[in-house]
Amino acid sequence: METRVRVLIDCHDAKGLVYKISKVFYDRDLNIDSNREFVDKENEKFFMRTVVSGTFEIEELDAALREVAPEDAHIRVIAPQDKKIVILATKESHALGDILIRYAAGELGAQIECVIANHDTLRDLVERFDIPFFHVPAEGLSREEHEAKVMAKIDGNAFDYIVLAKYMRILTPAFVSAYPQRIINIHHSFLPAFIGANPYKQAFERGVKIIGATAHFVTDDLDEGPIIAQDVIPVNHRFDWRDMQRAGRDVEKVVLSRALNLVLHDRVFVNGNKTIVF
Amino acid sequence: METRVRVLIDCHDAKGLVYKISKVFYDRDLNIDSNREFVDKENEKFFMRTVVSGTFEIEELDAALREVAPEDAHIRVIAPQDKKIVILATKESHALGDILIRYAAGELGAQIECVIANHDTLRDLVERFDIPFFHVPAEGLSREEHEAKVMAKIDGNAFDYIVLAKYMRILTPAFVSAYPQRIINIHHSFLPAFIGANPYKQAFERGVKIIGATAHFVTDDLDEGPIIAQDVIPVNHRFDWRDMQRAGRDVEKVVLSRALNLVLHDRVFVNGNKTIVF
Amino acid sequence: METRVRVLIDCHDAKGLVYKISKVFYDRDLNIDSNREFVDKENEKFFMRTVVSGTFEIEELDAALREVAPEDAHIRVIAPQDKKIVILATKESHALGDILIRYAAGELGAQIECVIANHDTLRDLVERFDIPFFHVPAEGLSREEHEAKVMAKIDGNAFDYIVLAKYMRILTPAFVSAYPQRIINIHHSFLPAFIGANPYKQAFERGVKIIGATAHFVTDDLDEGPIIAQDVIPVNHRFDWRDMQRAGRDVEKVVLSRALNLVLHDRVFVNGNKTIVF
Amino acid sequence: METRVRVLIDCHDAKGLVYKISKVFYDRDLNIDSNREFVDKENEKFFMRTVVSGTFEIEELDAALREVAPEDAHIRVIAPQDKKIVILATKESHALGDILIRYAAGELGAQIECVIANHDTLRDLVERFDIPFFHVPAEGLSREEHEAKVMAKIDGNAFDYIVLAKYMRILTPAFVSAYPQRIINIHHSFLPAFIGANPYKQAFERGVKIIGATAHFVTDDLDEGPIIAQDVIPVNHRFDWRDMQRAGRDVEKVVLSRALNLVLHDRVFVNGNKTIVF
């Protein structure tokens, strides 16, 4: 029976890597359905994402690749299947809603385990889609206490990624470090412009002619994590900050969904504080 | 009590129009909250959209404007309130879903009377939002017979606009002429490129590097009606036509919602086969 | 004989302004060829740009407008004619070259009085277009001493605007304040991201997926003046900072020329630290 | 001494191609500086562009690659060096001027052999850059007679590509077939919309909200050749067709220069009526 897998390799660059890896595929008579490579010369790092198909055992292929790759190589042989995600939100429904519509259409490429929000506003919308919704209020709690309650809900689920669909709270370093390269956020500005609170107000004050949104992995540094996708739209002097916010929502939701789609299809490598997107 | 209205005027261009109209506002001590004008010199037509507020009677203002405007003037004094729309769809959920999420958030600016589809696929999604869904199958019916059944459902509702949210059937001239300038369609190409069936396949065959979507009023000529909004995204040789279709959906839904928002806020004038968008 | 002028008015907002101003036009039997207004509600300011034509004296029209406008009104009645500009540059030729090509085609809408550069690199290019080129080296000079030499060259010319076409030196507050709202700069980033030196290197380090350029009036605050125009292009992980620089040049030159064109056609009002662009 | 070459291969797809080709590189101890591949599954074609460096003989590498590649393979081992181009133009200077400025800055990556135009308008501009300019008037000549005169000028030069920088004449099939895949045109519309004469007038009549430009290889079918690059800008109801033309020029010149840059760096494969752009 034919198997199809995504092979992801990143390691120090070395001569002959493409040859050695493609030899592993050739020796097993595999088809290369697509192949993308990149060498980061500054840091001498090699990245490769190949989709191969044929008759083979995943474990055996994985082992063979490990044999030819450098010792530091990070190798993943992934059979495509739906990932599992947990969504954190607050009150706004556009980014979450965009994900829900794709989910209902069977186009998301992920199972939504649950939605957790610090307000109860979105319960009705989420439950319309038969997805568990947990309201975890933050009032009167320290950040740590609140996150402990959130993590209690999350950890009941096996999941691959946490998606912050306009979750308007800053996560603690402890929370972030518990899920490295697994938390995806949408920031409502064209980062690194307008880091922090109310970027649309900042954009309005600055009088910019273009606004944008940025999807990125979350790290300890606020709005400083590796950028996955960005997009922009023009604005003009007739936009007050609420108009910018309204117009920006379309960009936010589309950029988040695009980034999520890339991540769910194993198309994104994190390389230091940047991403390689194949 | 303060009233706020949108005043829309279009007529043959003539000297003194701005003066005479602004005098009507001034004589009533109204505030001009925003004002946009345009003169189509080729056709000698004048267009104006003004938002005024103050203490006045709508009927009296309307009458006063009629007195100063040319005889052929088309004048509307509109108290902003939610319009009513009917949505026609087929099987795809992205454009419809985008509208539903805005609707649920109270951001659509319209009441959705019902969704009518020639397949039953979208029933579940629509009914999750407590909106009436009518399945009107087309199999075995002539175009006229099918439309008669659709119109039977529609005409039970008072409504302002019909939105074709990826309704994959061509309307008859009779249907179209029953609702002039009231049917809004999203075409999945950057019109006038790729008119007609499966534009993504056409785009793929042609090898374009950018694809787009076009929201337009429906007229008798297929995909030839006045364009309200368009947008595009880049593609490349790695996209097959299904990839283009997938990527294009985000443009389609955003362009349709943007056009709908413009129309619902009375920002669109039809000028021959073009639009003025204020 | 028919005269055509641009009327620019900005003042505190007040009821009846449009009426009073359009009455002035109406009383003189003028045609309104185009008309744009904007009210900045936050600051209660009114902006208007009208193109009128007819038989009239500019001074008389100006005086009549002053009579009906608020005392603080800034009124300009401008007979369209080529402005005069001085260009400052350093070594890069793309932004300067774009201006020169438009100039040679008679499409710039401005007379170039001279080009002044702190290196001699661009002399050959500039002199090909029969434009005076002055090399004012900065080596061994304080910023003030250098600028004094530059101003000596500039002030020999009557001019309207100074265009910084990739002039890679920071101007002193004294220089800037000598030409308020008359110095236009192109910054090679999507401001306010990457203020200061080598923005492409900064963009590369940050791993952004989009880069841009910003044309703005120069004020005392580095890269903080009112933005006139911005644009962007996508980049990806395959771009090192020199690739970004190379790709960015096309955006820089087009954005600067677009901003210059707007300014030269009197389409830009400065409103605090923002612009109104009609 | 280290040599660096671009290796371009296109052939029928077959299992093991990447392995066999990378083995050739590995056996010669070459560095792979960058590598891009694409498989057109519909037509079972394989495309590869690799930049390799090391100590080797170009002829030997070429021979070795031919040994492992399928018989139908089209293989090029190219030592990067400036190509030679001939430019055809008419009266407009923006696209030509953009190329000239890059040329003068040493950034074009090509030697301009000469500029040939059917009007004398551009002589002054071209000669400012010390490039031969030939005026070949078309009046009173048949298309064939005129092209014979043009070809007489061209064939005096060894050249790689003919660039039509807004050359406003249609070439005969005979001319086109004399230079297959070697003529690059900029069409002033977002093809396939508005094929043929005065696309801006067509765009204006149609009332589009976005206009664009398309760089493509010229084939016998008017404006139907393989597309290399496209870009767009927004327009609105205030643009008459001349405004569209003016605004469109910036897109035209940037798209042509971008396409030219891709072609000159051997980044473009023609695949039937499409391109692969690496």
Explained architecture:
In chain A, a hairpin with a 4-residue loop joins β2 and β3 (45-54). The longest helix of chain A is centred in the last third of the chain and has 24 residues, at 241-264. Chain A contains eight helices and 13 strands. Chain A has 278 residues and is α/β, with parallel strands linked by helices. In chain A, the strands form three sheets. Chain A has a seven-stranded mixed sheet with strand order 7-6-5-8-9-10-11, with helices on both faces. In chain A, 32% of the residues lie in helices and 31% in strands. Chain A has two domains: 3-78, Alpha-Beta Plaits; 83-277, Rossmann fold (3-Layer(aba) Sandwich). Chains A and C meet through β11 and β13 of A and β11 and β13 of C.
Notable traits:
2 domains; 8 helices; 7-stranded mixed beta sheet; 4-stranded antiparallel beta sheet; 278 residues; homotetramer; alpha/beta; Alpha-Beta Plaits; Rossmann fold
Provide a count of the helices of chain A: 8
Low-confidence stretches of chain A: none
Q: What profile does the largest beta sheet of chain A have?
A: 7 strands, mixed
Indicate the CATH class of the largest domain in chain A.
Answer: Alpha Beta
- How much is the radius of gyration of chain A in Å? 21 Å
Task: Using the alpha-carbon principal axes, give the shape of chain A.
Answer: globular
Task: Bin the helical content of chain A.
Answer: 25-40%
How do the helices and strands follow one another from N- to C-terminus of chain A?
Answer: EHEEHEEHEHEHEHEHEEHEE
Which pair has the most extensive contact? A-C, 32 and 32 residues
Distance between the termini of chain A: 28 Å
Strand content of chain A: 25-35%
* CATH-scheme architecture of the largest domain in chain A: 3-Layer(aba) Sandwich
Widest sheet, order of strands of chain A: 7-6-5-8-9-10-11
Kindly report the oligomeric state of this protein.
Answer: homotetramer
- Please, what is the average pLDDT of chain A? 96
- The CATH topology of the largest domain in chain A corresponds to Rossmann fold
